[in-house]
Amino acid sequence: MGIQRNIKQSLELSYSSLKEVKSYLNNAHQSINDEEMKSEIKDNIKTVNELITNCENITKTYEKQQGQNN
């Protein structure tokens, strides 16, 4: 059970960390005037959004598997 709890905590930490990174990138995007940098930041935000979606999907799959195992 300890390993399962660690997996769940790791997924939750990954998700919250990605949300925090997205927030920092959004703040940087709003405060930077250089258009090239803004474009790079926007691309990074898209990547982080994909990672957030992947994390959500992994979490849902994990929770579904745990429900089937119980």
Report on the architecture of this protein.
With 70 residues, the chain is mainly α. It has a domain at 33-63. It has helices at 2-31, 35-69. α1 packs antiparallel against α2 (35-69). The chain is elongated and about 55 Å long.
| Cα-atom radius of gyration | 16 Å
Tell me the series of helices and strands, N- to C-terminal.
HH
Query: Strand count, sense and closure of the main sheet?
Result: none
- The number of E-state strands comes to 0
Query: Span between N and C termini?
Result: 11 Å
What is the strand content? under 5%
**Percent range of helical residues:** over 70%
Number of helices: 2
Structural class: mainly alpha
Key phrases:
70 residues; mainly alpha
How do the helices and strands line up, and which of them pair or pack?
Layout: H1 2-31, H2 35-69
Concise summary:
The protein has 70 residues and is an all-alpha fold. It has helices spanning 2-31, 35-69. Helix content is 93%, strand content 0%.
